[in-house]
Task: inverse folding
């Protein structure tokens, strides 16, 4: 990094750019709707009908079928729509399957730490915890795969992801539990290495919150049928009845009442994704991440929080702003929101002060490009104010 002074940081012109992003929705969840989205495009025949009606089950099954097709998910893996967004889906997996063998939890950002807390304080198990600071990835070689292993595939609050699935052995004894909410649809995931995956529609698909998706590989299904946890299970977590997996959950028979409006919204996004062709969602995320990386490289005052390029998220990209503390970041974000140039880009509350810009597939690359000059303007404006206040 080039050594800068406060004066250097305020050189850029404070003139507002002439071009704004057409869709300034860069929130990391709920994320931007797909291009061309309009509420009038939602199918409405199922609204006001029971989700257990023939039509309701058909629409839920259709959403599951589209997810399977787009993910290239093998028939060996089950897909269930569950309550509580990604958090609910991952909690469901933890409460129903952990306790059968020792547990290792990887934590390098807020949500990974959340799973550690739940394992220790709620389930009362003592996991081996392997941590890394924000911006870093733990040493994956330390993982003992005789244990069940909990990890986030893509750290939404840190911008750090696992580079691939090569660190997960094919002959593992424990189950791999991947909180993959910011990764599913944006990466080509190795499903043979994932026993449990969770995500929500509100990330890469730009869907609505409140619903999670639980994907179970065959080893996870076997665990559910062969192991009974020592703790009581809330009704919304129960995936087994009379010792057998409740297969209806994975055929559109949800555990509780889903919002069929949210389901139709997800279907609209899935159909849009299908129209892009194979790899279309991944290609759009890649292009967006590359455009933002170019912006970062061209500015001495802006840097990725994730230190290692191979571990850098292509969806929830977290940035460090030179000399900016939390108050200054809030000022930048407020300025950009007031101008309609960028919404909701301040970093996560538990993360180091910085910006977080969503680069998932529903964002247009042209809008990422248009954001660059606005970041210059906001930074220069805030730094000029700081300089004046301190002079």
Result:
């Amino acid at each position: 990094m080039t050594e800068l002074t406060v004066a250097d940081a305020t050189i850029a012109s404070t003139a507002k750019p002439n071009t704004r992003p057409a869709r300034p929705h860069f929130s990391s969840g709920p994320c931007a709707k797909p291009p061309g989205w309009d509420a009038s495009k939602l199918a409405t025949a199922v609204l006001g009908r029971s989700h257990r009606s023939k039509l309701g089950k058909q629409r839920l099954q259709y959403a599951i079928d589209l997810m399977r097709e787009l993910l290239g998910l093998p028939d060996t893996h089950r897909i269930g729509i569950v309550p509580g967004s990604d958090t609910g889906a991952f909690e469901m997996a933890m409460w129903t399957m952990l306790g059968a063998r020792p547990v290792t939890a990887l934590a390098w950002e807020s949500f990974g730490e959340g799973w550690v807390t739940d394992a220790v304080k709620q389930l009362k198990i003592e996991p081996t915890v392997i941590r890394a600071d924000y911006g870093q990835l733990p040493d994956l070689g330390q993982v003992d795969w005789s244990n069940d292993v909990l990890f986030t595939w893509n750290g939404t609050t840190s911008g750090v992801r696992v580079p691939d699935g090569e660190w997960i052995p094919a002959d593992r004894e424990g189950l791999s539990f991947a909180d993959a909410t910011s990764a599913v649809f944006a990466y080509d995931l190795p499903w043979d290495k994932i026993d449990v995956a969770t995500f929500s529609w509100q990330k890469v698909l730009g869907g609505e919150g409140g619903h999670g998706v639980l994907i179970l590989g065959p080893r996870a299904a076997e665990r559910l049928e062969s192991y009974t946890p020592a703790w009581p299970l809330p009704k919304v977590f129960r995936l087994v009845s009379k010792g057998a997996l409740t297969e209806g959950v994975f055929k559109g028979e949800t555990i509780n009442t889903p919002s069929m409006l949210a389901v139709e919204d997800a279907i609209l996004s899935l159909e849009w994704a299908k129209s892009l062709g194979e790899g279309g969602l991944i290609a759009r995320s890649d292009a967006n991440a590359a455009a933002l990386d170019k912006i970062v490289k061209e500015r001495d005052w802006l840097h990725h929080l994730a230190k290692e390029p191979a571990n850098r998220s292509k969806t929830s990209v977290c940035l460090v702003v030179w000399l900016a503390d939390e108050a200054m970041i809030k000022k930048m974000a407020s300025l950009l929101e007031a101008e309609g140039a960028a919404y909701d880009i301040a970093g996560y509350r538990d993360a180091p002060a910085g910006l977080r810009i969503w680069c998932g597939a529903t964002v247009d690359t042209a809008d990422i490009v248009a954001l660059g000059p606005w970041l210059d303007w906001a930074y220069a404006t805030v730094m000029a104010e700081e300089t004046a206040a301190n002079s």
